[in-house]
Amino acid sequence: MDRIGYPLVTVSALKAGNWLRVAFSGVCGFPFRHTGLEVALNDQRQSVKQRIATAVNQLPAPVLDDLEGSASYRLFVLRNVLEETLIELEGNERHGTISRIDD
């Protein structure tokens, strides 16, 4: 039987009013949605980079580290997907030009 290849990290997001809701898979050992993480991502008083850093600190379990992707690579992918998600759902005019998050 052939093995099905799934994305390393998946982020599903939607905007409900002015509130961003986000669910994740491939980050921890289980799919999840986390209210504290959403609060961090929705904190408009902080920069996108600060919001993402705060959100990543709210992860409910250790980041997966296996043959398909190291924990550091998964975090790299997660940070960049979150940046793209925030820019797309909040509108580019709010953020101007943002450099890629690579650390």
From TrEMBL:
Residue ranges of every copy of the CO dehydrogenase flavoprotein C-terminal domain listed in the record: 1-89
TM segment ranges: none
InterPro entries for this protein: CO_DH_flav_C, CO_DH_flav_C_dom_sf
Protein name as annotated: CO dehydrogenase flavoprotein C-terminal domain-containing protein
Natural source organism: Tigheibacillus halophilus
